[in-house]
Amino acid sequence: MNRITLAATCALFLLGCVAEHVDRPATSQSNSSSGAGGSSAYGESAETFLVKFETSRGDFVVEIHPDWAPNGASHFRELVENKFYDDCRFFRVVSGFMAQFGINGDPAMNKTWGDSIQDDKVIESNSRGMLTYAQTGMPNSRSTQLFISYGDNSFLDGQRFAPFGRVVEGMAVVDQLYAGYGDGPPMGNGPDQGRIESEGNRYLLKDFPKLDYIKTARIIEAVGAEAEPASEPAKETSAAEPPAESEQPAEATPAAE
Length: 257
Fold this sequence. Notes:
By secondary structure, the protein is an alpha+beta fold. It has helices at 3-17, 70-81, 107-112, 171-175, 193-199, 201-207, and strands at 49-55, 59-64, 92-94, 98-101, 130-133, 146-149, 165-169, 214-220. The protein has one domain: Cyclophilin (Beta Barrel), CATH 2.40.100.10.
């Protein structure tokens, strides 16, 4: 499989990884909200801000740029302020490609924050360390799920994946997130997103106990001593290669359910 075909395959499965019942565009929402009763307009908080993630593997900090993707940045801030990402697992970690998270361990939280938001124009590229929303194949289908790119995923730029932040401290921690379960079904034996949404962390703790998770995600004033460095050397990943061919078969298609 050549690199172009492989890249397209990876893109398709990233679209499909958010099953329709997990992050589905609302059928009657031509102007989707940014969350539970929130507005998608960024309003007065259009300045760059920092969010510190304390995780089971260590800490990392992301710098959020509303000028890159205002709807995405606004919604993310609202989710963080409401502690949505606390205790969320990194349920899909594909070495060399990306680390995905953003399904809450409490099914009730997923129902509360299930609304989708309007797409943003893609301004920045999906390069290493960029934070971007996962989505279905439908426009305006971003909700709560996010991913951090491990390498050059610029093939996603033309498919509505608009980065809105980047890791500015602790990328070594992100590199070390547990990836031993591989991809989710139907491509692998990792966690099933539908079951995470409906059963929460009870399912993950029973069947996938080694997954790393977010302890807290909080807005901070500045990058500094708050963020703990990784406790182990970062594993090597390729900044330019998508997942190995064996990890992303050619038959991959969007897995909407």
